[in-house]
Amino acid sequence: MGSLEHAEGGKPTIVPEEAPHIKFDHIFSTSRRVQFMTNLRRFFTVYWRTPEYNFTRFVTGIFQALLLGFSFFQVPNTQAGQLILVSAAFMSALASLMSINSAVGNVIGDRIAFYRESAAGAYSAFSYFIPLLIADAPFTLVTNFVFGIMFFFMVGFQTSAYGYFLVIGLIYALWAVATGSMFGAISPTEEIGLILVPLMNSVLNLLAGFLIPASAIPGYYIWIYWINPNAYYLSGVLKAVLTGLQFVCTEDELAAFPYPGNTDDTYEFPDCESIPPENEYSTLVVNSTFTACQFCPVTSGDQVLEQFGVPGYDQWVSVGALVGFTFFSWTVGYLGFRYLRYLSR
Q1: Can you give the pTM of this predicted structure?
Q2: What's the mean pLDDT in 221-232?
Q3: DSSP symbol at 274
Q4: CA 41 from centroid of its chain's CA atoms
């Protein structure tokens, strides 16, 4: 102690001035790779040792598939059926949308541990948030895979759309969990997060192209439609399940109009069957003096797509858009973990 220089007040300095300065390459005690893999193993272990959350989510998914599947059970290809098929496609997003709320509480509940351990230099925001999402992904995919299989075949969509329906459904589910985690990262409290999520869902569902067809959305709201994940999901599913599908009419669903030749003997078509396009109209004699032409208003899935104003881009564009929205939610969530701190003292 005697050899140490004394500072003002007679107390020895803790570190001599001639001592070399210690410099570190980075502020964390381990590399990013070690941080990432450590957290990934940790989150997989947490999910494995606490199965209640995932078991509840899995059972809920099966219940939703049964509830919705029996509600839209084996929809016929009739005029009423074409509207029910569109409704079924819209409701197929329900299971994923409900997982947004659960992701909010899951992230906020574990956020305090991140604040403590990142302050100690254990790991970065990226090495914590991304492994959290990756560890959740297998459980999300299994739940929605089972939901998709049950719901698809119970509704009776055309089988050619099966593969695409599963692919876009799984990507949409990953987007939903990523978005819930994003709100968990940026919300001060769980209560605020659970207020913001229903507000977002209300706007996205309203302007997804089902409740209000895309062609009828006001111009000052149409920009929301083009940045709406729900709209891309719905348009992709509708194109897959309706393209090439044929619809028929029951006797009660046939529409009719007066035969134009009733008052003009020079009319060039002798009967309804001859009116172009041929064989689309059939003759109905109401009485001896009045003849009507019957027809089926909707005969193809393309007509349904046109009615709802579904854009003409390829259905795989919807998949690409959802992938982009998923990475956007991941990015915002990561930035929330890195730059926001909600600590109660």
Answers
A1: 0.87
A2: 96
A3: G
A4: 27
